[in-house]
Amino acid sequence: MPGMSDDQGRHRGEIGTMRDDIGGVDTGAGGTWASGDYARVGNRWLLVGELLCETAGIRPGERVIDVATGTGNTALAAARRFADVTGVDYVPALLEHARARAAAEGLDVRFEHGDALELAHPDGAFDVAVSTFGVQYVPDQERAAAELLRVVRPGGRIALASWAPDGYLGELLRLVGRYTAGASGDAAPTRWGTAKHLERLLGPHASSLECAERQWRFRFRSPADMIGYFRAYFGPLTVAFDVLDDAGREALTADLTRHIEAAGAAPGGTVEVPSTYLEAVAVLAS
Question: Quick one: where's region Disordered (predicted)?
């Protein structure tokens, strides 16, 4: 594959891990989300979890599970609404960060090491399942959706915020896939960011499914600043730059720069790049 280094055996193994692990389901040795520093990236969209909990109507005393919680943005937002919250993620370092954040705020949240494809909870254990830019990365999308449906009681709610195919994150993930043989088509994480896909995954089990496109804006000093930030801290891009050779890294950087310059010119030479995401709430049939 153009842009790959000569050590094909090692790199194919790493790429395979990236594809399998990209949503917190680690079936290999790499650990994409343990690469970089997701806490730094996740801090940039703290408000998305708050907005999702508002749209979902989280109420005091409700049992809420945040799947692929990362550093706990949405779990903490639910806990601030006095819900009984459990956060699940596969990466121990992210869970440690989430626990520290909860302790700093004096919030009572259970953070558990677990697999989004095999949640360690009985059927109907929760009133609400939430996930913000999390479960969409799990490679087996049907099984991930089935687990969300299983652990939420009849009449309960599933609330999701998922990056859409258009916008910066969608383009970033497409470029990573193009350069590293990552997931595309039916397996693309950004399919969760389309109402059509969620209708297929959740619609048959829901009495209602409401979807709305939102935009999150990334603000950086320059295209180079933005690329450097995501390269250092956003696991999929960190891994991509690690497995590409010099020519591949140069080409990927050029593609990212062109996209940012086209989408994000702002006053003073800075960049403001919009990234579309889908906010969705499904109410399950009783």
Answer: 1-24
**Terminal Cα-to-Cα distance of the chain (whole angstroms):** 50
Domain parsing of the chain, residue ranges: 8-284
CATH number for the domain running over 8-284: 3.40.50.150
> How large is the angle between the packed helices 168-180 and 235-243, nearest 10 degrees?
30
User: Among candidates 234, 259, 236, which has minimal Cα distance to 181?
Assistant: 236
Please choose, from the candidates 137, 142, 157, the residue with its C-alpha nearest in 3D space to the C-alpha of residue 70.
137
pTM, 2 dp:
0.84
Give the count of alpha carbons within 13 A of 205, CB side only: 21
β-pair type (152-163, 126-132): parallel
Residues β-bridged to residue 110: 86
pLDDT one-digit tens code per residue, 130-181: 999 999 989 899 999 999 999 999 999 999 999 999 878 888 888 888 888 7
